[in-house]
Amino acid sequence: MAAAYEHLSDSADETPIPFRRAVESLRAARPRPEIELEVVPAPKRLAPYAAALEATVVERGAGADGEDADLADGRLVLLHHPAGHEAWQGTFRVVTLARAELEPEMGADPLLPEVSWSWLTGALDARGVRYGEASGTVTRASSHHFGGLAAREPATQLEIRASWTPAEGPGGVPDAGAHLAAWCDLLCQVAGLPPAPQEPGPRGGVVPLPQRRGAQPR
């Protein structure tokens, strides 16, 4: 895990200390073992400073012939603008993407968009992180196959794109690791995994987990 974060932090002298400390918080996060994290190039035009991670929820031995299978994936980007950003109402912004395939019956549920957004806010609340200015979109796309592909089953993909402003703590540094952990919880939920044993289960009124379409071989 440590090796995956080796090049995440920019140690240049001109890099603002709050951003460096926020990145250190990302490096310290330890998600559940089903999640594989990888450092990827961060976008250059969204903010003066940025760090990006991609994540995949993996079920060991669930694919054909005992292969590992991918259940969900996504990306998290931490942005920092030292002068602040009017739309963010702060100097940091978390931008995320989470996606997974669902059973067609689940994808047809008219309440799926509202429920999916509640999975995100519920994950943040369950971690006790403070945030503001949350916004996003929930997209579902169904695929039906015809002709030579008619034997394939219909597929429904759920995609949640969201961003929010993390509350800043001492020194103007947000607890970026806690926000990463909450986002990983969301990924596990859209993947259809139960809560981790060491974590509390869903709170009262939380909508049941989605049904997985089936493990996708790696």
**Percentage of residues in DSSP E strands:** 25-35%
Number of strands: 7
Shape: elongated
Cα distance spanning the termini: 20 Å
State the order of secondary-structure elements, H for helix, E for strand.
HEEEEHHEEHE
Characterize the biggest β-sheet: 7 strands, antiparallel
Helix amount, in percent?
Answer: 10-25%
Protein name: DUF3000 domain-containing protein
Pfam families: DUF3000 (PF11452)
Region (Disordered): 195-218
InterPro entries: DUF3000 (IPR021555)
Structural summary, described in words:
With 218 residues, the protein is an alpha+beta fold. It has helices at 17-28, 104-107, 112-127, 176-190, and strands spanning 35-40, 49-59, 69-85, 90-102, 131-143, 155-166, 216-217. Strands 1, 2, 3, 4, 5, 6 and 7 form a seven-stranded antiparallel β-sheet that branches. Helix 1 (17-28) crosses helix 4 and helix 3 packs antiparallel against helix 4.
Describe the secondary-structure layout:
Blueprint: H1 17-28, E1 35-40, E2 49-59, E3 69-85, E4 90-102, H2 104-107, H3 112-127, E5 131-143, E6 155-166, H4 176-190, E7 216-217
Antiparallel strand pairs: 1-2, 2-3, 3-4, 3-7, 4-6, 5-6
Helix pairs in contact: 1-4, 3-4
